[in-house]
Amino acid sequence: MFGRICPFCKETVKKNAVVCRYCGRDLDVQESCGVSGPCGLFAALVGLTAGAALALGLGYWKERRRWEDKAVNDFSYEEADE
Ligand SMILES: [Zn+2]
After folding, report:
1. How far does residue 38's CA lie from ligand 1's centre (Å)?
2. 8 A C-beta contact, residue 6 and residue 31
3. How far is the C-alpha of 72 from the C-alpha of 5, rounded, in Å?
4. Strand 12-14 and strand 3-5: pairing?
5. Distance, CA of 42 to CA of 68 (rounded, Å)
6. How confident is the model over 7-29, as pLDDT tens digits?
7. How far is the CA of 34 from the centre of ligand 1 (A)?
8. I need a labelling partner for 74 at 20 to 30 A (CA). Which of 6, 21, 58, 64 fits?
């Protein structure tokens, strides 16, 4: 009763199992975990890491654009000065 059916071999495995004990295949963990469970924490961690990486990448890109703009501005300023 307290379990779920493995989608591959149709055997009943534990509700929070990540690998089927009958066929040894990875089970879809997203399906079985609640928000407060370890899988929810993992998902939050992944989301946080992805968000941080994205923010870092975006920050670097913006900074790079700023440098390029500055370089272009400096160049045109020097050119106009002469
Ligand atoms: Zn199985």
Report:
1. 22
2. no
3. 63
4. antiparallel
5. 38
6. 899 999 988 888 999 999 998 66
7. 22
8. 58
